[in-house]
Amino acid sequence: MKTIIGSKDITVFLTGRVDSVNAPEVEGELFDIAECNKGKKLVLDSSEMEYISSAGLRVLMKLKKKYNDFELINVTPDIYEILSTTGFTEILTIHKKLKEITVNKENFIGAGANGKVYRLDDERIVKVYNPISNPPEKIEREKAAARQAFVHGIPSAIPFDIVKIDGMYGMIYELINADTLGKYINSHPEEMEKYAVEMAELLRQLHDTEFTGNELPDARLGLKNWIKIAEDSGYYRQSDLDKVYDLVDSIPHRDTFIHGDFHPGNIMLSDGEMFLIDMTDASIGHPVIDLLGMFQLMKLLPLMKPAIAPRYTGMKMELSVGMWDAFLRRYLGTDDASKISEVEKVLGIYGFIRSLGGVTFSDEVPDGVRREQAAKIIHCILKGIEQGITNVDFL
């Protein structure tokens, strides 16, 4: 059997048929390989396996009993059907073989922090994930989160297949005649105010939707991941980062839905109806975690880097800023300029937490410049903490 030995696992490639004729031989080889590589995770690549009989299934059961930490990958539809029918999908870790597709770069729709979206045809779009921050496990979690959101009545695009595109992972969604809200507003600026109001009402709906149990992670973990990236970079003093960790822990927890990357580039508009995409960071928690990301993408980034912002929201700088202002007035239910200004100060402080880690791995920027930017970011956060600009009671 062909094998590839890694530092933490060993991959064995199964080929052809595994039936009563060769099952004893396959069993003996697999156990020998596992015994010679104790301490490594056993991975069975089934991409070239054509059939497995009950005798072959018994081999898998024996492996499961002796080596609990093993999995099957690249399982073809035919083999998966056998495993599903016999109940093995409930007791083994199984990953289906992913279909390879291509995208037409001319059909680019929009981009976000986690990837880019392309239209495949009149009824489907595909999200191509940034490989740096989106391992397969995270994409599987997004698929599950999107389905949970749909079941809870949240208007979200239904995810179907996870696919491979030029070595990267993608998720296919079905949407009919849809475009991003950002691109639509860019072409129909006269409707900005209308959809800003609808966007605020949609986010209110999300923040009123409760999840129970362990369906989704704590939204604060996402912010802590950015702090951890900053910690690993070596750009910051640990004592300063500890204060930021404490700040995140001080955010009150709620069992309500948080999208994690809510903005016009992640809202699809179909016949005037909004649908959410990009559930990579879906979680439960305090609404401030959604708002801080919106404030960064829709107001701060367009004002500071107007040429870059349309990559994410799909809108020109003035439209993005105008839509944010109209959205926030509606969401907060006030036109009081002083109150809105105070809220934006708070969102700015929390928004910098995401920048802590982001600034450290931008290869386009020299290391010295990144360190200088990092120093400014941590200074702003610590100053905000010191001045008490961190109260989220307005939500």
Describe the structure.
The chain has 395 residues and is an alpha/beta fold. Helices cover 46% and strands 21% of the residues. It has 13 helices and 16 strands. The strands form four sheets. A six-stranded mixed beta sheet has the order 6-10-11-9-8-7. A five-stranded mixed beta sheet has the order 1-2-3-4-5, with helices on one face. Helix 1 links the parallel strand 2 and strand 3. Helix 7 runs antiparallel to helix 8 and helix 8 crosses helix 13. It is globular.
Structural class: alpha/beta
- Summarize the main sheet: 6 strands, mixed
Uncertain stretches:
none
Cα-based radius of gyration, to the nearest Å: 24 Å
Q: What gap, in angstroms, lies between the N and C termini? A: 60 Å
Number of strands: 16
Q: What's the quaternary structure here?
A: single chain
SSE string? EEHEHEHEEEEEHEEEHHHHEEEEHHHHH
Overall spatial form: globular
Strand order of the largest sheet: 6-10-11-9-8-7
- Give the rounded overall mean pLDDT: 89
Q: What is the tally of helical segments? A: 13
Relative helix content: 40-55%
Strand composition percent: 15-25%
In short:
With 395 residues, the protein is α/β, with parallel strands linked by helices. The chain has helices at 23-36, 54-66, 77-85, 136-151, 181-187, 192-207, 220-233, 238-249, 288-304, 310-313, 317-332, 337-358, 367-387; strands spanning 3-5, 9-18, 41-52, 70-75, 93-96, 99-100, 108-111, 115-119, 124-129, 159-165, 168-174, 178-180, 257-258, 267-270, 273-276, 283-284.
SSE diagram, text form:
Layout: E1 3-5, E2 9-18, H1 23-36, E3 41-52, H2 54-66, E4 70-75, H3 77-85, E5 93-96, E6 99-100, E7 108-111, E8 115-119, E9 124-129, H4 136-151, E10 159-165, E11 168-174, E12 178-180, H5 181-187, H6 192-207, H7 220-233, H8 238-249, E13 257-258, E14 267-270, E15 273-276, E16 283-284, H9 288-304, H10 310-313, H11 317-332, H12 337-358, H13 367-387
Parallel strand pairs: 2-3, 3-4, 4-5, 6-10
Antiparallel strand pairs: 1-2, 7-8, 8-9, 9-11, 10-11, 12-14, 13-16, 14-15
